[in-house]
């Protein structure tokens, strides 16, 4: 593999990872807000168990966001013990395991969340993200589709953007573009979809289109290392050395120790 090929590979890999998003806080709020109807149909004992699970999951999420992972894990384990059917507890636990690098344990918890509530949009979106990042992109698309079928799912643009990014990572450009354009129809300024469309157009060698989507992205968000590297590649391929240089300087100044900066220096030195 030559230097330029490695550069392309690194850019795609990091973009796919950064463009796929978890909606953990939204998942939690949706489940909690929906508990009134659940409680009306259940016994007092079941209601108390659900409330205890909600409370411990909320605390677990708070501790996790503070970086207190051991305390958070204790609260989340208590939540699933109180109510084994409470999907948000498994989801937050999965994210915690993912953050500390325990991918296998994270996968098990995402699976448990799905088994607890298999039609829920947020659950399927989150599980789809994990599958696309780690093991089975084809199966992930099915979960994104299931998320879109949930009439109570409040963020279909996110699931569509995730599906598009996942298909892009598989090299399925036609399918990816279909998902991404649907996402942008619902939410024209969605940064995830705009960056993925930049990558997609670059791979199609439509450099003017890639530049246009990058400009739309930069109007609503600041690119990270992978985005700056992609911007450099787009301008370099377009023959605009001045604009390419700006992206290069931004990447080296803002992310000097990043893998993308190292790859860019290696290619540029040749």
What does this structure look like?
- By secondary structure, this protein is mainly α.
- The protein folds into two domains: 100 residues, Tetratricopeptide repeat domain (Serine Threonine Protein Phosphatase 5, Tetratricopeptide repeat); 131 residues, Serine Threonine Protein Phosphatase 5, Tetratricopeptide repeat, CATH 1.25.40.
- It is built from 16 helices and no strands.
- The N terminus is likely disordered.
CATH-defined topology of the largest domain? Serine Threonine Protein Phosphatase 5, Tetratricopeptide repeat
Shape: elongated
Give the uncertain stretches in residue-range form: 1-11, 23-27, 29-38
Could you estimate the helical fraction of the residues in percent? over 70%
Short structural description:
With 270 residues, this protein is an all-alpha fold.
Itemize the secondary structure elements and their pairings:
Layout (H helix, E strand, L loop, with lengths): L2 H17 L4 H10 L1 H7 L2 H22 L3 H14 L4 H13 L3 H14 L4 H14 L2 H13 L6 H15 L2 H14 L4 H13 L3 H14 L4 H14 L2 H14 L4 H10 L2
Helix pairs in contact: 1-10, 1-12, 1-14, 1-16, 2-6, 4-5, 4-6, 5-6, 6-7, 7-8, 8-9, 8-10, 9-10, 10-11, 10-12, 11-12, 12-13, 12-14, 13-14, 14-15
């Amino acid at each position: 593999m030559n230097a330029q090929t490695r550069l392309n590979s690194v850019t795609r890999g990091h973009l796919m990872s950064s463009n796929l998003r978890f909606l953990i806080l939204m998942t939690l709020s949706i489940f909690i807000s929906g508990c009134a109807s659940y409680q009306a149909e259940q016994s007092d004992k079941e209601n108390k168990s659900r409330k205890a699970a909600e409370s411990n999951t909320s605390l677990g999420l708070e501790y996790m966001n503070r970086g207190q992972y051991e305390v958070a894990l204790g609260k989340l384990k208590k939540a699933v013990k109180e109510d084994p059917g409470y999907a948000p507890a498994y989801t937050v636990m999965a994210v915690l395991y993912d953050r500390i690098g325990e991918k296998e344990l994270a996968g098990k918890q995402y699976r448990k969340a799905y088994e607890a509530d298999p039609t829920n949009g947020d659950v399927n979106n989150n599980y789809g993200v994990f599958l696309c990042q780690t093991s089975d992109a084809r199966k992930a698309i099915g979960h994104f589709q299931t998320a879109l079928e949930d009439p109570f799912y409040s963020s279909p643009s996110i699931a569509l953007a995730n599906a598009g990014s996942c298909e892009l990572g598989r090299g399925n450009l036609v399918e990816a573009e279909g998902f991404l354009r649907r996402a942008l129809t619902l939410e024209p300024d969605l940064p995830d979809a705009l960056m993925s469309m930049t990558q997609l157009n670059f791979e199609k060698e439509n450099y003017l289109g890639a530049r246009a989507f990058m400009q739309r992205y930069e109007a609503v968000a600041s690119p990270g290392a992978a985005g700056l590297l992609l911007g450099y590649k787009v301008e370099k391929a377009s023959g605009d050395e001045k604009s390419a240089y700006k992206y290069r300087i931004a990447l080296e100044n803002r992310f000097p120790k990043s893998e993308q900066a190292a790859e860019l220096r290696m290619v540029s030195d040749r």
